[in-house]
Amino acid sequence: MPIYEYRCTSCGHELEKLQKMSDPELTDCPACTTPNLKKLISAAGFQLKGNGWYATDFKGAPKKAAGAETDKPAAAGGCGAPACATACAGGSDSVN
User: Fold this and answer.
1) What is the pTM assigned to this prediction?
2) Contact, 45 vs 1, CB < 8 A?
3) pLDDT of 30 higher than 80
């Protein structure tokens, strides 16, 4: 169901209402009780419910990038980055 936004032309009160598309538009302002509510044009709103469909549906096995060497331990004193063999280990090619 869409979420609609309304604003009262009398008092300026704004509200959001979860309504079916077939429901009639609201007309009475809950703040000042005048029949001056107007529907605003806004971005489409929606609510995601549940425990996350993206986490369970269409999820395949994790894929490794081509040439990734994640199973090898990092060089002693390094962080594992390709340039780390010289930069982090205190080599002469380190960039400061």
Assistant:
1) 0.45
2) no
3) yes
